[in-house]
Amino acid sequence: MRLWSISPGYLDARGLVALWREALLAQKVLMGLTRGYARHPQLERFRRTSDPVLYIGTYLYYVYLEGRRRSYDFNLSKIVRYDPGLPRVPVTSGQVRYEFQHLLDKLRARDPARYEALKGEADVKVHPLFYVVEGDVEPWERVKAFG
C-alpha cells in the first residue's frame, strides 16, 4: 500500500489507479471493515487526525478529482465522507523528496517518457491534503534503496 504524499498529478495511469484502489482499501481498514493491513504504517498519519475516516475520505476525494481530470471512471459514491475544507496534515520535506525519488524509480522502468518529463522537477507539489514542514523521512516510512 502506498498512500502518496506527493500530488496525484505526478502519477502515471497505473499509479493513479493503484492509488485509488489502495486508498479505498485504507478507508475500509480505518472503518474497521477488514482485518488486513490494520497495522500498515502508511495509515499512522490518518490515525493521528481527529477523524481518520473523514481524512482518508478527503484524501480519496482529491484522487477522485485527478481521475476525473483524466476522464477516469472513479466512483465518488465509494468515498464515505470528505471535506475539502479540513485542516491540512503536515508531511516532512524529507518524505516528499523520498516519495518523489521512489516514483521516479518506478517511472524509469514503466513510463520512460513520464520519467524524463519529471526527473528535473525542482519544486515537488504535495497532495492537497498535506502541507510541507522541514524534516527527514517520516518515521513510519519503510525506506528502501533505489536502483
Provide a brief overview of the structure:
With about 150 residues, the protein is mostly helical. The chain has five helices and two strands, in the order αααβααβ.
What is the percent of helical residues? 40-55%
Give the SSE order as H and E letters: HHHEHHE
Q: Please report the distance between the alpha carbons of the first and last residues.
A: 20 Å
How many helices in DSSP terms? Answer: 5
Strand content: 5-15%
Q: What coarse outline follows from CA principal-axis ratios?
A: globular
Number of strands: 2
Radius of gyration: 15 Å
Number of domains: 1
How would you characterize the overall build of this protein?
The chain has 147 residues and is mostly helical. The chain has one domain. Helices cover 44% and strands 5% of the residues. Strands 1-2 form a two-stranded parallel ribbon. Helix 1 runs antiparallel to helix 3. The two termini are 20 Å apart. The model has no long low-confidence stretch (mean pLDDT 94).
Descriptive tags:
5% strand; mainly alpha; two-stranded parallel ribbon; 147 residues
Write the layout of secondary structure elements.
Blueprint: H1 13-30, H2 44-47, H3 52-69, E1 89-92, H4 93-110, H5 112-118, E2 130-133
Parallel strand pairs: 1-2
